[in-house]
Each structure stands twice: as structure tokens, then as C-alpha cells.
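Lecture 7 notes: from sequence to structure.

We start with a single chain of 534 residues. Read the sequence below before looking at the structure.
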Amino acid sequence: MGNENSNSSMFDFKKYLSKKNLKKDLPASIVVFLVALPLCLGIALASGAPLFAGLIAGIVGGIVVASISGSQLSVSGPAAGLTVIVLNSITELGSYQIFLVAVMVAGLIQVILGVIKAGTIGNYFPSSVIEGMLAAIGLTLILKQLPHAFGVDSDFFGDEGFFQQDHENTFSAIGNAVTHLSIAAVVISVLSIAVLLIWPKFKKLSVVPAPLIVVIIGVIGALLFSGGAEALRTDQLVTIPVVSSPSDFFNLFSLPDFSSLTNPKVYMVALTIAIVASLETLLSIEAVDKIDPIKRVSPTNRELIAQGSGNMISGLLGGLPMTSVIVRSSANVNSGGRTKMSAIFHGTLLLLSVLFIPKIINLIPYACLAAILLVTGYKLTRIALFKHMYHKGWDQFVPFVVTIIAVLLTDLLKGVGIGMAVSIFYLLRTNMRNPFFYRIQEEGDKKNIRIKLAEEVSFLNKASIQVLLTNIPKETNVIIDGSNSRYIDPDVLETIFNYKHNAYTKGIIVTLEHVKKHYVVPKLNSKIVEEINQ
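Now the structure, written as C-alpha cells:
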């Protein structure tokens, strides 16, 4: 399956545009479009950038990145995790046009990272941490979208951080929303959730995506409540720029200020964006592969090249930096998306909505879109996942839970970092306990101990081996057997040879069997390496 993704550099139109795939990809693209539209606008608003900049990033992420990417289900666009970086960078650099140059340079750095195979770092994220991240994103969606479902939209749509720009946090915002709720928004969101849960159960009706019905209900609800005391305010509705002529459309674009290429601050901002965006992308790609029903494997290096290309084009057109985004991607998976065409169609829909139906789009209440994300969050945070991780043992369950809590109380990258630290602790603990096994035989008063080393004996095993050797009683015959070992770390070898040299002082006779004086790190088969590095 990895080969299928990594080798499909050119479009197989027959495959992607087949009736079987289009039947799934078209409805999924509508759902992703409806989810992505407010997220693009909300992230642009929170970043201190023009609203259209978020839409540019969404359009480029859908059409350009998906076309180049080897992932079939990942959806790219502006990410909530970059909002603080973008906001601070625009202020530091002095203008949005200078910031666009940094976005383009960041894209170039990502392409270089992909070419030098830096994407393989994505293969080292522990499964327990990725599962925890998915569950945490689901809980975050539920907690963050509740205020929007109640009609309180003081925080930007799509925020994922615990501390908000409106000086609230995730939990206090819910409390504030309960005391200031809008009857119209609550009615719309409750009806929307009911439709999302019931509509798919009727197979004949499910040809039309439930989220599309939800949006229609939302628009009708907003119109019915208009004019009264419970009418929805403008800030409770989606707001995209209204284009009335070609000149209006082209005036929405911003051009980079290339004279700032000599400014060293541009390169520092670019490096920051490239690193953070690449990490978020690799995490998202790994998570999407986890929830892919077909279990395809996405080539990580090619993904960095795709993201870098997208960021270069987005910066050139005046758009925000982008990453692969787990919220949009999970909405794509949950809606039945099958190939990358769903992401490409969603980007096309974003473009067409700005060009032809901005006034209709501006009638959509945030409440109905929040309902879509609430259901998406529920599917990501299913109880069965917690049970599954618990049955896998504490070394999997503890990092899983810690990642969830850390992401909820900080943000995505910090939370995953904390989860990684806990996971590494358990990894070290396991490695220290499993470098060898030994057997004790007694012949009269003399003990014979045979220590058989593991296939891979790393530096992490040094402490446990040293403890074992130190505690061997006097007048013992010790055989250290390395016949199974493909690699023994130099530090461990030094410990073993030093022990043999000094053991005679305790009356211990040490025999080494198949233990070399030097080991070379075993190389992977070249074909396997090539496949991994795609």
C-alpha cells in the first residue's frame, strides 16, 4: 500500500474519476468545504491577516497540495496552531507583504526538508501518542464548538488552544456561553445535530450529504428568526468578501514585498514557520493514516514537498501558511472520502463560493457548522478507543491519557511533546529490562550463569547489564553469549570487556562466546530504505 501512494506521482484519471470513487468523494468534498470555510476565515481573523488570505490558503491547500501529495485523505489549509506565530510575525516584520516573503521562504525550506528525507521523522511518533492526539482533537472540537452552538462567537471559529484571545479559556468560555446563549442558535444547532445523527440511517436519503441539509436548515432558521429579538447578529454568521466584479476579486490578493529578502528577520520567521508547519503536517498525516479505513500509508517526504510547494504558492498569492489539518482530514474520512479528489473538489468549491455565491454563503450561521464539528469530535473521541488503549497495557494507556490531557490544557504541539516524553520514558524502561536473558546452573558449590544477549543491545541497555554483572556472586562461571546479537553498542562492549578483565579478582571466570570487539550498525535492505524514504 505504501508503494501505491508513493509511486502515483501522476494522476491516474481513470482511478480518481471513476464512478465508484466519485460517488464517495463528491459528497465528502461538500462536507469538508463546509467545515473548511469558517475555519479558513476564523484563522485569518485570529492571525491579524486579511480574511481572503485564509481562503487563499484553503484553496491552494485543496487544489495544489492535494494534487502533489501522496496522501489520499489528508486535507490542507491554514492551521490554528500557527495563528500566534503569524500574528506575532506580521507585527515583528512590520507589514503583511513582508510576511508573505517569509511564507514563501518557509515553503522552500519544507521542499528542501522533503528532498533530504527529513519526513522520516514521522515514522517515529508512537502509536499511543497519535491515538491520544486524535482523541484530544475530538474532545477539543466538542468543548470549543459548544459556545458557537450556543450562539456565543467571541472566540474565533477553529481555535484549538486552551487559552483564548478573548481572555477566556476552554472551560470558562463554555460557562460564559451558557449564560449568554442565543435561542435561535441553540434551536439551529440542536436540529442540525439531530439531522446529522438520523439522516445517514436512511440509505435512500443519504445520497444527499447530511451536512448540506444542515446548512440549508441553518440558512432557513436564520431567515425565520430575522427581524425579531432573537435574530442572529452578523457576527453569528459566516462572513466572506463579496465580489461583484473581476477587479474586486483581484484586489483581494496581496503581493509579497521581495525587497525584504535582505532582511534577516524574514529568514528567522520562515524557519519557525517551516519547522512548526512540518511537525503539524507529519503528526496529521500519521493520524489520518490511523483512521483511514483502507489503512494506506502516506509518503512523508513527498508530503513535505507538497506542503512546501503549497506554501510557496500561497505566499506568492497573498495567502496564509498551511499544514495538513487533522480536523478537516477527519471530517473527510468520516464523510466517506476515498481519494485525494475530495480534497481537490473542496478547494475548488472554496474558490467558486467566493466568485459566485458569497451572499448565500454569508447567510450560513456558525451554529449549524459548529454542529458538524461537534459530531466529528464525537466520532474521534469514541469510548471504544479508550477501552482499546486500556487493554493494550499501561505502557500504551498512560501516554495516551497524558497526551489527551496535555493537548486539552495547552495546544497540539506542546501536548504531543509531553505525550512523547512520557512514551519515551516507558520505551526506556522497557529497553532497560529486555537486553538479555540468563540461566543459572549449579554444579556442586559452583554456579554457572549463561547470559544470552538480545538481537539489538543499545546504549539504553548498559545500566541493566552493568547491574546484573555487578551482582553476580563470587566463585561463579559466567558465559556471555552474543550469538543472537546483530549489534552491540560500543559502551556495552566496553562494560563487558572491562568486567571480564576485572572479574578474576572475585574468582569469577568469564567466557565470551560470539562477542565481537566491534559491531557495525546493520543496514536496511536498499529497496526497503527507498520505500520508507518516499
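Residues 40 and 393 are 39 Å apart (CA to CA). Keep this in mind for problem set 3.
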